[in-house]
Amino acid sequence: MKRMDEQTVAREGHNGAGRDNVKLRIDNISKRYQNKTVVDRISLTLSTGVYGLLGANGAGKTTLMRMICGILRSSEGQITLAGQPVTSESYRSMLGYLPQDFGYYPDFTGREFLLYMAALKGLPKSRARHKSGELLELVGLAGQADKKIKTYSGGMKQRLGIAQALLNDPCLLVLDEPTAGLDPKERVRFRDLIARAGQGSIVLLSTHIVSDVEHIADSILMMREGRLIYQGKWEESRGDLEAFYLEQFGDGQQARAGKGTETGPERFVRKTADSMDAGEGKEGW
Fold first, then answer.
1. Residue 144 sits in which domain range?
2. Global confidence as pTM
3. DSSP string spanning 182-220?
4. Which helix (H) or strand (E) holds 34?
5. Which of 68, 93, 108, 111 has the largest count of CB atoms under 10 Å?
6. Per residue in 205-249, pLDDT tens?
7. What are the φ/ψ torsions at residue 77 (nearest 5 degrees)?
8. 125 and 34 part of one domain
9. CA distance 218 to 222
10. For residue 158, how many other CB atoms are within 10 A of its CB?
């Protein structure tokens, strides 16, 4: 069997091991607004797996992700996926994106919304129907597929959001604060889905809640004031990730990462979710 290059793998839509050849390359990316530098000379090469992007509010996470998705133009530097520039149609065809607040039509049913999004992404009707049904099953919404989105809970809407991001079998899946506002059970379910997606795609997940990524991320990226201050797999020998995070950002930050910055209810939610990760009350979708 011949070895496929990045563009061939991406174009033919191969999943799993074949996509190990596909790389997201970020080369010296910066974003400036007048005299303020929001993202400062970041360089990364990402391959298949889950990457947890941590940082306090205002660290530059969302700006970086919006540049990766082609929504914002960088002030300098280049971004490519499978060798294709971020401005190209081929790059966008390989991208799945869930913004922090994704837009939807409240009177659409979940199924109608996915079919509509599939049409926008250029999927043939037969494939769109098949893929929509497959994803509704995957995210646990098959039983609510024909109910209007306005009746969905916050967690159900987020699951629908990740389903639409997966419609085109993306090589790159970008998720901006996907667990914000979810209850403990929904957070655990969402993490499980993200971990599965990372088996065949590059998944970049931003959050300021450490427990959202410490259990599922293959690599941790940490941003402060527009720069990367940590990159790599977190080893237990280094100590507690949450403690390291707080050491970097201090108790005065609004990042709800650890015990020193959580309110009582927030601490209860985090601990409950973490206990579910350990196996208590964990259930399928």
1. 98-169
2. 0.79
3. --HHHHHHHHHHHHHHTTTSEEEEEES-GGGTTTT-SEE
4. none
5. 68
6. 998 788 888 878 999 999 999 999 999 988 776 778 888 888 887
7. 95, 175
8. no
9. 13
10. 25
